[in-house]
């Protein structure tokens, strides 16, 4: 997977590219499926759609949950929003 800093993503997010369908699955087992949450967060696509909630596997934000456009792997609208507060640096250093 490769990441780029370009585009209209929210601060702290990078757009994923180079992954397709079956490769796009996370290595992290989810307790809840990405679409099983309330209240609904909508991306900026037209028509607006429910954004899945994912778990970050990055060094800067390990295990932190976020919402991203349902089409983020294929360009999408650039919507991204953190669900969790940032981890203290101690935990990032411990995990990463």
TrEMBL record:
Residues 1-30 are annotated as: Disordered. Residues 18-30 have a biased composition (Basic and acidic residues). The lineage of its organism: Eukaryota, Viridiplantae, Streptophyta, Embryophyta, Tracheophyta. GO terms for molecular function: zinc ion binding. It comes from the Eukaryota. Keywords: Metal-binding, Zinc, Zinc-finger. Residues 43-86 form the GRF-type domain. Pfam families: Zn_ribbon_GRF. This is GRF-type domain-containing protein.
């Amino acid at each position: 997977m490769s990441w780029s800093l370009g585009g209209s993503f929210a601060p702290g997010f990078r757009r994923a590219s180079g992954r397709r369908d079956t490769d796009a699955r996370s290595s992290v087992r989810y307790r809840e499926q990405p679409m099983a949450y309330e209240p609904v967060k909508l991306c900026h696509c037209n028509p607006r759609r429910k954004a899945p909630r994912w778990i970050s596997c990055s060094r800067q934000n390990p295990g932190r949950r976020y919402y991203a456009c349902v089409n983020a792997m294929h360009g999408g609208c650039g919507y991204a929003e953190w669900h969790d507060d940032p981890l203290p640096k101690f935990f990032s250093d411990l995990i990463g």
